[in-house]
């Protein structure tokens, strides 16, 4: 019975194919092309959505470029203020043998947002490098940059894992990660009030982003964010200076976890 | 973004740099400022070429890891290049002075080289009038008496190099008479020829009243009207008339060609140019090859596009010199860069220009007034903001808007009326204060008046009023003090000094320059002169300069937003507020991307 029902349809299809009616044929071809395009598009998007980049962000002189060099080569290099991004593939040192693309972005005020725009969509994880020695002095600038990263709509949507690396721990005056966390939470708490109260932007969109960081009513806490946040202490230069290795086991372990 | 100027001076060092855009390298040369080294540019070019050629493979193949891992042992090569450059600058040996024998001077006789002061008396004598010449005659009579005696002496003294003054005079007189007399007689006969000469001379009458025009008419006899006077020249009607096919009597329009279409999408056409001549199909393939292949950008490719972009920017009200410098720096950044596939020159240049513009508008310092006010609140001192600018830009209006915004955020404001010159300035601020207090009555803020005016009338010293206002605010516990100053032209030296004094003495936390968005090239001049005045009259080591810009009357320009670029380029300070109207809510913050988009829109 089923075959009987299919037969007339098959017959009709065969008749159609034999006697090519240009209109129907062209419609079929068009539908086929659209279907193929959709498949390809979804495939490409699927490929793009597997973000494999780990961004190194932070203020100027935080130690991002040295950290980048140390992670990739293990050697110490004299670095200058970066004016452009550098990217390379980093092979994670564990059994999984995965690799991620490390991208080192410049920290200069006039460049940082531009480069963040370019690479934020590809970010699987973000390492925010903080200069622990100059932190007391720079706390407002650090918090402002971190705030800008956190309220970015793409970052909120993708929720990449965030690691705040408190660098330069080899210097004796460096602040501990706990202290930095507390100070940042306090500062971000204030910032979300002032930023949302800032005059609205020219084209109508609010400068602070319509997103509210954390929960209203309660003091800001890093646990309120949609992404996983960790604090780790590290030293790119290392306790032995230029000859020795860098101290960043915490960073490497975290990278292994993320990859 | 300031790439047009490739040298930078800091204390005693000067730095010059060169960009290699193909491999993204920067070469920097530093040297002491006091040494003026002429070979620096050549050295940096040589170093660039050699380094690039030596390590070309490493850049191309290994990428970032190659850069990190590679050892670039360039020191020996660099020392060699430096030595070469130094030697080449010394190559021209100092010119050896010619010896006396070699010069032409020794070959001349001594006599003809003597520059006698008699040259001048000779000319004076020639121009003398009739009476003067008579006097000469009498003198000449006396002179020949001596002349014959002196004649011999000069010849004797000719061998010697020096002649006495009298002898020189006599010699000149002889020459003078020789020239006037027809016969070359000796000086002894001079009295007689003198008498003859006097008769022979025609009197020159200078008084026009005594003579008529006829005497003074030295032209040829009348030729007007007679045809023989001027010869008929060869007249070629073709060259004179030009176009033979013109309609007689018609006036043609001015012709112009519009070459917009030609410049629209300038694809690199080098491969296509020869092939276009071969045939149509070959030409098309050549153009596709030009699109897909990777070619590095050269100046000639970019120049027409940059010209167009520069004109576009100027049309959008960016100051002319800044547009020029911006295009220069974009050219420097892109020169030698390898373009990707399917990108045209226009799109690359536009992209680079857009990035440069966004970079300019990103502030180099934080733009959070509320945060800083909170800080000052914690330290129990008022946060002082000073507004300065030229006349009529909207200082008082925007001051009122900013105080409204601060009150909305819960800070109490003291307005200091330091505009003691303009009629009605104090009344204007008092009206604003009354309105703001009506909008935010003390009851809704815990019994505290949110805004108050501190004024001392007209004609007083502005700096003194500001100081009193700040101490009053500290005593009364106000959070913010907004100081309104009088508008002044940047060229007005005494007023600029007064403003600088106000700022230096009171040390405000924020100095805001208020500028209108309508200003064009004037913005550059205003900001430069304001900054200069503030720097010159400050006694401190690091003078207080303008900290931020308030851009007003933004609603009057639709998309000609170039003034924002001009102002931030000159000062490198951020635009803190944008004023877009007359009501209290018309205060905005700058959105860099929107402004750049409006600028780049065709």
Question: Your description of this structure?
Answer:
- The complex is a heterodimer of chains A (259) and B (602).
- Chain A has 259 residues and is α/β, with parallel strands linked by helices.
- Chain A has one domain (53-197, 212-258): Rossmann fold (3-Layer(aba) Sandwich).
- Chain A is built from eight helices and six strands, in the order H-H-E-H-E-E-H-E-H-H-E-H-E-H.
- A six-stranded mixed beta sheet of chain A has the order 2-3-1-4-5-6, sandwiched between helices.
- In chain A, helix 7 (177-197) links the parallel strand 5 (161-167) and strand 6.
- Chain A is elongated.
- Among the domains of chain B are: 7-90, Beta-Lactamase (2-Layer Sandwich), CATH 3.30.450; 298-361; 369-592, P-loop containing nucleotide triphosphate hydrolases (Rossmann fold).
- Helix content of chain B is 49%, strand content 10%.
- Chain B has 23 helices and eleven strands.
- Chain B has an eight-stranded mixed beta sheet, sandwiched between helices. In chain B, strands 1-2-3 form a three-stranded antiparallel beta sheet.
- In chain B, helix 5 packs across helix 6, helix 13 (299-315) crosses helix 15 and helix 15 (345-361) runs antiparallel to helix 23.
- Classes of the chains: A alpha/beta (259), B alpha/beta (602).
- At the A-B interface, helix 3, strand 2, helix 4, helix 5 and helix 7 of A face helix 1, helix 15, helix 16 and strand 11 of B.
Write the layout of secondary structure elements.
The complex is a heterodimer of chains A (259) and B (602).
Chain A (H helix, E strand, L loop, with lengths): L1 H17 L3 H28 L3 E6 L5 H10 L12 E6 L7 E6 L4 H11 L3 E9 L3 H16 L2 H6 L2 E7 L9 H21 L31 E5 L15 H10 L1
Parallel strand pairs in A: 1-3, 1-4, 4-5, 5-6
Antiparallel strand pairs in A: 2-3
Chain B lengths: L6 E4 L2 E8 L4 E8 L7 H30 L5 H16 L19 H4 L5 H8 L3 H28 L7 H16 L10 H10 L12 H4 L20 H5 L18 H4 L8 H7 L1 H13 L6 H17 L4 H15 L10 H17 L7 H10 L4 E6 L6 H14 L4 E6 L6 H15 L11 E4 L7 H15 L3 E6 L7 H14 L3 E7 L5 H15 L11 E5 L9 H10 L3 E5 L7 E2 L3 H9 L2
Parallel strand pairs in B: 4-7, 4-8, 5-6, 5-7, 8-9, 9-10
Antiparallel strand pairs in B: 1-2, 2-3, 10-11
Helix pairs in contact in B: 1-2, 5-6, 11-12, 13-14, 13-15, 14-15, 15-23, 19-20, 20-21, 21-22
